[in-house]
From TrEMBL:
Keywords (A to Z) from UniProt: NADP, Oxidoreductase
CDD domains in UniProt: AKR_AKR5G1-3
A UniProt-annotated Pfam family: Aldo_ket_red
Alphabetized Gene3D superfamilies for the sequence: NADP-dependent oxidoreductase domain
Binding site for substrate: 112
Record-linked PROSITE patterns: ALDOKETO_REDUCTASE_1, ALDOKETO_REDUCTASE_2, ALDOKETO_REDUCTASE_3
Assigned protein family: Belongs to the aldo/keto reductase family.
Name the UniProt record assigns to this protein: Aldo/keto reductase
Chain positions of site Lowers pKa of active site Tyr: 79
A GO molecular function held by the record: oxidoreductase activity, acting on the CH-OH group of donors, NAD or NADP as acceptor
Active-site residues, as the UniProt record annotates them: 54
Phylogenetic lineage: Bacteria, Bacillati, Bacillota, Bacilli, Bacillales
Residue ranges constituting the NADP-dependent oxidoreductase domain according to the UniProt record: 23-262
Native organism: Paenibacillus foliorum
């Protein structure tokens, strides 16, 4: 079982990726994002998830460089934004992200959304970066099964990760099964449903049973379901409490109760209807 914050999943190319990471969406560039990344690293997190869109790559890089933790022990993800997609523009966007962070190599580089008629060219650029050693793993975000099938029909490298909205109200059963079948690691963004449904009776009851918060129950459920999770917060106490999920296990019955909360309910946009 997964018993420590440093425990990792092994991606389809052999690279290790921590099960728990910190998302920095909406953390302000500069002092705020540096502070939250520093807090996370001090707490024991080793995975940080940012993106070109977030506008805080520089602060993420600074915090990692200032940390006493050796670079090879941290795992950094960033993403190419929709307006930067296409072959040459993706290569340029990657170089911009890498320079902002001041990092020689990025651990995981993702296509942020499946922009129609562009994501295949974008993927070719990611394959080039991967083959040249600038990235340790490449993947996608917000891809449905039909996007993955289309991409995999003629790609040279199978995505290592698919980062999607995933929580007890949106369990994405078919997508998770497909990813597992093709050795693509599923990763959850918005695992806490933007704070909605945290007072759901199932979560409250399981929290009481295990002496944990609703948030901790959800994050533990993610990991036991085999899904990497990256809750975001700029609050030091929450960053620490989000990591306090490695001293208990949910039973098979507990997990079934959480699975039953599914309503195919999104807090974000459906990738098929995204306003690119």
């Amino acid at each position: 079982m997964i018993k420590h914050i440093s425990d990792c999943t092994i991606l389809n190319n052999g690279v290790k990726m921590p099960w728990l990471g910190l998302g920095v969406y909406q953390a302000a560039e500069g002092e705020e994002v540096e502070r939250v990344v520093t807090t996370a690293l001090r707490t024991g997190y080793r995975s940080i998830d940012t993106a070109s869109l977030y506008g805080n790559e520089q602060g993420v890089g600074k915090a990692i460089q200032k940390s006493s933790i050796p670079r090879e022990q941290t795992f950094v993800t960033t993403k190419v934004w929709n307006t930067e997609q296409g072959y040459e523009s993706t290569l340029a966007s990657f170089e911009s992200s890498r320079k902002k962070m001041g990092l020689e190599i990025i651990d995981l580089y993702l296509i942020h959304w499946p922009v129609k008629d562009k994501y295949k060219e974008t993927w070719r650029a990611l394959e080039k970066l991967y083959k040249e050693g600038w990235v340790r793993a490449i993947g996608v975000s917000n891809f449905h099964i039909h996007h993955l099938t289309d991409l995999m029909a003629d790609c040279a490298v199978i995505p290592a990760v698919n980062q999607v909205e995933y929580h007890p109200r949106l369990t994405q059963v078919n997508l998770q099964h497909f990813c597992k079948q093709h050795h693509i690691q599923l990763e959850a963004w918005s695992p806490l449903m933007q704070g909605k449904s945290l007072d759901h009776p199932t979560l409250v009851e399981l929290g009481r049973k295990h002496g944990k918060s609703s948030v901790q129950i959800i994050l533990r459920w993610d990991i036991q379901k085999g899904v990497v999770t990256i809750p975001k917060s700029v609050n030091e106490e929450r960053i620490q409490s989000n990591a306090d999920i490695f001293d208990f296990d949910l039973s098979t019955e507990d997990i079934a109760q959480l699975d039953a909360m599914n309503r195919n309910e999104r807090t974000g946009q459906n990738p098929d209807n995204f306003e690119f």
